[in-house]
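Below: protein 1.
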Amino acid sequence: MWSSIKQRWESLKNRLTPSAELSGWRNTIFTVLGLLVILIVLVGFYWSAEPNAFDVRQNANSKFSAIGRSNVVGGTTTAALIRVSETLLDKPGGYLTNDVMPPGLYLDNIPNWEFGVLVQVRDLSRAFRENFSRSQSQSTEDPDLIIAEPNFNFDNDSWLFPPTEVEYREAIERLSSYLNRIADTSQSDAQFYARADNLAAWLVNVESRLGSLSQRLSASVGQERINTDTAGEGAATQSTPAASELAVRTPWLEIDDVFYEARGATWALMHFLRAVEIDFQDVLEDKNATASLRQIIRELEASQRTVFFPVILNGSGFGIFANHSLTMANYISRANAAIIDLRNLLAQG
């Protein structure tokens, strides 16, 4: 009896014990999976690097050389808008916001950076369509910009039917067509008007965007703010009642998201303003506003300094740990204040 039980136990153990061949296959599979995970992580680190800045003048010269024409008023700003838009699609990893597979699926810093850039691209493309390309409010809109502007406003995370990249690529092609047309001296149907009122109209949107980013960054430590929604006008009203004091705090998991969105926005805006300095040179000199614009650019350049710590810290305002969001908010607030001064200068006769 005991002999029979022992034989059955040995038989069962032999069946449950994997063979050497099966064990070898299993080890191989685990090794391949481990290497694949390591590869995905390394690629994720590479894709998470923010693109470098570029020289807007050299960029414009290369664009015009490619089409065999000379640079014209508005050409540097148009070329900068094209290059910034191309960077969204052609940087390492391509456009990541709509990725549904790793490593793009788990990355969030660069997708937020992309959104910050995209908002600035959308605002400037709208300014092209509504202001820069038109001599007055009753002027006809440019046919290329009519398509480019709404294409940039397409859903930023669509991965199929159609992918976001297809819509943005078409917008870039339309901007390139517009660039080619304004440089063609044999026709005058496409224009770029470098006027103080056109520039001021775009700066209104820039001011609003930077003000919002500054507030969201500052809220990383939590604040009690006085409600100033209807301040400055005695007859002002609002839809529903609101408290006289508001507790504002950015959720902990969104702090790095807001930070990288601000990094993307200031990166794009830095290039746009460098291009504006070239195309609006006569206007800025006439208004004695060149120094103000250069100060804005300098503040934006400072916001692009390298972050040496691998994590976006959220220390208190005067605590022992750094607060990267407050540092970024400082540069953005200073740039925003300088933009207000610049708009005042542009409005003067």
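Below: protein 2.
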Amino acid sequence: MPFRNTLARDLTISGTALHAGSAVTMTLSPAPAEQGILFRRSDHGGAEIPARYDLVGETRLGTVIEKDGVSVGVIEHLMAALAGAGIDDLTVTLDGPEPPILDGDALSYLSLLESGGAVEQTEPRMVLKVVKPVTVESGDAKASLLPDDRLSFTYELSFPVIGDQYYAFAFSRAGFKAEIAPARTFGFLNELETLNKMDLAKGASLANTLALDDSGVVNRDRQRFADEFVRHKILDAIGDMALAGAPLLGRFEGRKSGHATNNALLRALFADSRNYELREP
């Protein structure tokens, strides 16, 4: 029987917040069994926000969790890395509004987690098995969770300049590290000025973001995969699905979907207890 895992020791790293553009320090700490992933804002009196789908309050350009007027933004890359590392219980302490963006991927977080090592807890790890199909749609965007005996992700992407991309990923820790975690976030240069005026993307740079203009990828030397964009959308989906509170067992299918659709999908899943079963793997 698999058991829950936490970190073996504290880990601290500093960097720049993607949207706020400010310096932020993050400490990852071991946590007791069944706590789950808990974010703590040291700059807000130690306010705590559990990483849960029902606490998501904003999804425009990242997944933001919020409780009692305090929020933590852009958590999806870290949540994806925690899923890839098999970490169930963890306290994330921040002195700013977001985790540091680091390399714009999940691999930088995953490497940090691996450097600290994991400790097996005494409580068994339960999984959330999808037993009935659940689908949400919004305009052209569509996302589904379907019954399956293993966790997998497929995604269809269609963007100007990028074109159409498709990727299928059967989840495994080794596969996540090699195929998905290195995929960087991306954005369009012509949107940057508008975002900055909205106090967003102030920490985005050509080092941590694949930048696109009318001719294609501006910083092509930073691109790791020809289909990096669709891989990153799967990375985002893995991080967003990690807000379910337990590892999912089922098949995620996305088409032109994003953080809002992903969160709506989890809310639809939990809206009816007949959609899922919490059980041993």
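The two ends are 8 Å apart (CA to CA).
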